Description:
heterodimer; A: FAD/NAD(P)-binding domain; Elongation Factor Tu (Ef-tu), domain 3; Arc Repressor Mutant, subunit A; 4 domains; seven-stranded mixed β-sheet; 22 strands; B: 458 residues; alpha/beta; Gyrase A, domain 2; Four Helix Bundle (Hemerythrin (Met), subunit A); Rossmann fold; 3 domains; six-stranded mixed β-sheet; FAD (chain A); tRNA uridine 5-carboxymethylaminomethyl modification enzyme MnmG (chain A); flavin adenine dinucleotide binding (chain A)
Amino acid sequence: MSYEGGSYDVIVIGAGHAGSEAALAAARMGCSTLMVTINLDMIAFMPCNPSIGGPAKGHVVREIDALGGEMGRNIDKTFIQLRMLNTGKGPAVHALRAQADKFLYQHTMKETMEKTPNLTLRQGMVERLVVENGVCAGVITKTGTIYRSKTVILTTGTYLRGKVIMGETTYESGPNNQQPSVKLSENLRELGFELVRFKTGTPPRVHKDTIDFSKTEIQPGDEHPKFFSYETKSSDNEQLPCWLTYTSEETHTIINSNLHRAPMFTGIIEGTGPRYCPSIEDKVVRFSDKPKHQIFLEPEGKNTAEYYVQGLSTSLPEDVQLSILRSIPGLEKVEMMRNGYAIEYDAMVPTQLWPSLETKRLPGLFTAGQINGTSGYEEAAGQGVMAGINAGRKAQGKDPVILDRSQGYIGVLIDDLVTKGTNEPYRLLTSRAEYRLLLRHDNADLRLTPIGYEIGLISEERYAAFVDKKQKVEQEIQRLQNTKVKPSEVNSVLEEKGSAPIADGSNLLILMRRPEMDYTFVEQISPPPVLLDEEMKEQVEIQIKYAGYIEKQLQHVERLQKMEQKKLPEDIDYSDIHGLAIEARQKLAKIRPISIGQASRISGVTPADISILLVHLEHYNRVTAAKG
Amino acid sequence: MLSDTIAAVSTSVGEGGIAIIRVSGPESISQVAPLFRSRIALTEAESHTVHYGHIVNPGSGEIMEEVLVTVMRAPRSFTTEDVVEISTHGGVISVRRVMDILLQQQIRLAEPGEFTKRAFLGGRIDLSQAEAVIDLIRSKSDRAFSVALKQVNGSLSQRIGNLRQSLLELLAHIEVNIDYPEHDVELLTAEYVKDKSSEVMEGIDRLLKTATQGKILREGITTAIIGRPNVGKSSLLNALARENKAIVTDIPGTTRDVIEEFVTINNIPLKLLDTAGIRETMDVVEKIGVERSKAAVTEADLILLVLNNSEPLHEDELTLMEQIHGRQVLCIMNKMDLPSKLDKDVLFQYFDESAIVPMSVLEEEGLDRLEEAISELFFGGKLESGDLTYVSNVRHIALLKKAHKSLQDAFEAAEQLVPIDMIQIDVRLAWEQLGEIVGDTAADSLLDQIFSQFCLGK
Lengths: 628, 458
């Protein structure tokens, strides 16, 4: 028996990192939103590493925050360690990483969601989509409830036809022994979607009291941590250290002598795993000359004795896992609380999506997160925000918001997925971005907060603070340029800072460009007339010091944007375009790029094909204009 | 791609007294301006005016070519963009000198049909022509592609490949340092960056040497015409020059007794050396003649040995054949119109049959066969300048120079301890520029390199 469970603007299926961001974004934009998930205790659960951030991933968290998403605020409330990585490198790659109290993280997110107006949380197993007139119009659960909506967002993570594998043991399951979602996967296939099988894995968890920390190195957090959210100004959270140890020769011997029981090698695993996240057995086999591998022991929270053994992701049988653990210095007497496992799941071929994350095949249906072939909480959350925004806007009759590759890592991520697809679980790396220097941790607000404000996810108060910061930074840079200095005024300070004295007059902006210089120099010579906080000073410093490199990249971006602005009509028939090479024709017809820019990034589409497209587009536009 | 500055020679190469290089794009005038020395600044020039002056090397100020420059401002130009047209002396050498300078700026070689494309996109060409424009782009780029493949010969592409691999390893190392800061991968030092970029710069230098020493680019393939007096060397030279529209006639004031002619045969530039012209007493002539032939032989990339079909082989000729054995030689049996007294079996001991060209210079017979034989040697990759991989394509040279400059920037940045992620920008640029030469700019190979070179993951 089925019954009508209500009608909404937006329905989100799943409550992981993509689902929770999507639901919050839609609800905050004023859409009546329903979030349905298999188990409400699993909201924003971290099935793998109890950690958020790092290079590229941390940048995404900043971007989510700059857009008005929740991940940054939530981790700032619940971290048990914060570290800024890459501080010895340029400002673009400074990357914040947090250890989370994973239970607190979930509870805090759930609490936020429960308090959010327009948002309804409902436990349930969605088995089918409602399709009416070729449009996705709602969902049907296992218990027969029909929820109707204008748009639906699927964020199924690793639940779709999930299968856990460890040694000879396999069983159908979502992560951490949750129920898998089987029927929905079948329904997607029925609807004509192309699915692929991916694999990921997680290491064992061990009991803190059975670890001999004296044999490991301590890895403390930063003494004066910075935060993910632009809203967080301070925190009282107490920090816990992580611990570093290494695999031993014995570890490698155990692994090598048990390879015949490793699903990776016996062929039990059919899904494609990520290269950047190999299991320990994979590492030992592929890099056999490496005598030891790093193992980090990470607390999973303040009120738990469970430790995550980073570096030991494995699908070897349980007994082998225990032997491996006990071969590691510091873990000789360790008790394993949960074993590691591999999990296979269904994912969408992401080239089936528009850059808005709406599926091409079924209007009204959006997908976000691991279902789109990515891995990582941050990648999921970044897509979640965008899917929430665009599903919400569609329900409100507005055009989608699409970030380009120069605006954010989120733009890079989504463009890569929908344009090139992926043949392994996709992880963001800073090297995937062409304009790394523009996509900095520090300037996420400058890049995205105006967009977040326009969408309605950034409050008036926060936006005012942002505008104030922006203006002060611009004025200060202008002031430094206008502040002429004579040698007599600055040479003693320059000397003090180990910098060469000047012979003629100069200005403060020019002197600030010197590698050894920082903002304290300005404060000594000519303090600003208005009070600048640390964030503003940092911004002034970065914008001045790296202006040359930044300018170069901005020129590239300008060209890129011209290509992005050449929009291709949705109804374009590539088989009808005279002169296109056959390969280009097939690829273009499959991807259906929204712009010349996107078309030019499809592999197999040559510059000559792009020229032909441009000529065709011009032809099309002139004819359309003539028709009036 | 839509608004960058493009350049191309718009007259056919090697023909006519004047060649025109067309430069188009919103910034074309300001980009050519610093390269043009004249009474007035190009940026100040009115539309549709012609200016006399010189193309100079912007770095050294060295004068490269005497030119006339025409400025046409948007939208009153073929492409509807700002256009600069540079008229130079005709012929490969002048044109290449100018293109060489242009392409080292923010100006790139136009893609096939690109001027026409821009004219169309600018509304200059009627809508009904759209299909014709597309056909032009398609056919020209297909042809350009096959030509480009020929130009990047096996050994050049392998050398470029090796340089790129070195850069890829460096890039992978940089990326791993950035993306996996907590992994126990070897920390990248400024020294390592400097070593690697110097190594690749040296490799680029070696390649550029073949181009910038000008052997082929500036002078052509050095071709010696040798043989005993009166076998028809000068006639052959004259015939080749006449037939192929010599670009430069004998260089005046040369102190050498060798006459040089520059010709292009099927677009292959040749510098012909002729040892003719000295014939006082027979004894001396023979002696000097052989010595001069020897000198010409050592410097030549290609040797045309001329024999007289109507006489038996002379002892000197046997000596010559011995000396040039193993070099790139075409053996010309001249005077085929006369009765044959030459012992061909001896020739076959020294030369392949394909290298023997029967001719009658007097009757103008067999010239086409000779030209064909030269083309075959050249496009077959057998003719190379010295023993170096040879780079002649202006686009390749410009890209090699740009890559070199990028690496120089990276090197200097490393020296100044600029953060590694910024150094990466220049290293990556160099890698892409080299990739453009061999038509490979896929970024995926970087990720493959990272994951095969380093053990990463949680």
